[in-house]
């Protein structure tokens, strides 16, 4: 495991995701090592390959200080009407956050600055519960958990070192009980959901039972670099399952899955954020890569 402490050139960066103004990525790399993660291409900026994803984490040690300096320069009126997202190409609450606490320190900088916009967070980790005290002080916050299955075995296969899916559902439950606004991110929609409608049904039922009502849903992104990694990991799997992965990129497949998603949303009383299932190629631009390794 390659862990380094680095100095970044900037930390509050414009975000290419529609609806989000700025993004903060306190780390490069992610130990959760999710096999489908689009952010695995980030390795090319630090001398790593896609295959190395999950084997390196670089902590941006000056992230809080940079944020303190950049906030007044980049945000007018304390950021009213703006959204800052944690994080687009890393998990802000992966294990290294226990040691470095960069995400927490950045949230504290937002509080000290008096940021009045929306702070949105997306993670797979129950470590996010540590910062409930800060969430309650922020004027507007929304905390999301990525949940791709109710089967911990499935999550363990695709999300190697991330907390199990069941713990993420428990985390949503706790956040809701604490009065924190939440959302769930079902992304990617794993291809078996078309053949196993009950699996997606159970997932949405679990999310609804947690008290969460808003969800993002995203189709599987099978860009060449992700497909290569996934197929290498799936050697020995049934041919039908592998074929499902390839067919998931067709328009017909996506339309079929969209119909299933909308039917289950209605059944469980859930709201689809953006009112559409996300297709990654249309939603992501080039992310932050301004770093200097020391």
CATH overall fold name: TIM Barrel
Radius of gyration: 19 Å
Please state roughly what percent of the residues sit in beta strands, choosing from under 5%, 5-15%, 15-25%, 25-35%, 35-45% or over 45%.
Answer: 15-25%
Residue-averaged pLDDT: 87
- Strands, count: 12
Helix percent reads 25-40%
The main pleated sheet reads as: 8 strands, mixed
Please tell me the total number of domains: 1
Structural class label? alpha/beta
CATH class: Alpha Beta
CATH homologous superfamily - what is it?
Aldolase class I
Order of helices and strands: EEEEEHEHHEHEHHEHHEHHHEE
CATH-level-2 architecture: Alpha-Beta Barrel
Q: What is the distance, rounded to the nearest whole angstrom, between the alpha carbons of the first and last residues?
A: 17 Å
Q: Please state how the strands of the largest beta sheet are arranged side by side.
A: 2-3-6-7-8-9-10-11
Flag low-confidence runs: 282-294
Describe this structure in words.
The structure is a single chain. This protein is an alpha/beta fold. The protein has one domain (2-293): Alpha-Beta Barrel (TIM Barrel). It has eleven helices and twelve strands. It has helices spanning 63-74, 96-100, 102-113, 132-135, 152-158, 165-177, 192-195, 197-209, 224-233, 239-247, 251-268; strands at 2-8, 13-14, 22-23, 27-28, 56-60, 83-86, 118-123, 140-146, 182-189, 214-219, 271-272, 291-293. The strands form two sheets. Strands 2-3-6-7-8-9-10-11 form an eight-stranded mixed β-sheet, with helices on one face. Strands 4-5-1-12 form a four-stranded mixed β-sheet, with no helix packed on it. Strand 7, helix 4 (132-135) and strand 8 form a beta-alpha-beta unit. It is globular and about 50 Å long.
């Amino acid at each position: 495991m390659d862990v380094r402490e680095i100095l970044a050139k900037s930390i509050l960066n414009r975000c290419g995701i529609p609806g989000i103004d700025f993004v903060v990525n306190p780390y490069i790399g992610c130990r959760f090592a999710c096999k489908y993660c689009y952010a695995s291409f980030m390795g090319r900026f630090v001398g790593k390959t896609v295959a190395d994803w999950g084997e390196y984490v670089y902590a941006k040690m000056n992230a809080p200080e940079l944020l303190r300096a950049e906030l007044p320069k980049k945000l007018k009126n304390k950021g009213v009407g703006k959204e800052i997202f944690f994080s687009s190409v890393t998990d802000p609450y992966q294990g290294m956050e226990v040691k470095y606490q960069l995400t927490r320190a950045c949230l504290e900088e937002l509080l000290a600055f008096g940021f009045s916009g929306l702070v949105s967070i997306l993670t797979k980790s129950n470590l996010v519960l540590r910062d409930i005290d800060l969430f309650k002080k922020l004027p507007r916050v929304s905390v999301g958990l990525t949940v791709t299955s109710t089967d911990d075995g499935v999550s363990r296969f695709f999300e190697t070192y991330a907390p199990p899916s069941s713990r993420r559902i428990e985390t949503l439950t706790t956040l809701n009980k604490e009065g924190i606004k939440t959302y769930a991110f079902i992304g990617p929609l794993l291809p078996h959901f078309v053949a196993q409608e009950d699996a997606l049904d159970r997932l949405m039922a679990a999310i609804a039972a947690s008290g969460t009502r808003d969800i993002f849903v995203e189709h599987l992104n099978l860009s060449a670099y992700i497909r290569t990694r996934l197929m290498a990991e799936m050697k020995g799997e049934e041919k039908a399952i592998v074929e499902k992965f390839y067919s998931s990129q067709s328009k017909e497949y996506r339309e079929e899955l969209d119909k299933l998603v909308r039917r289950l949303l209605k059944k469980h009383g859930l709201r689809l954020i953006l009112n559409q299932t996300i297709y990654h190629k249309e939603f992501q631009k080039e992310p932050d890569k301004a770093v200097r390794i020391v």
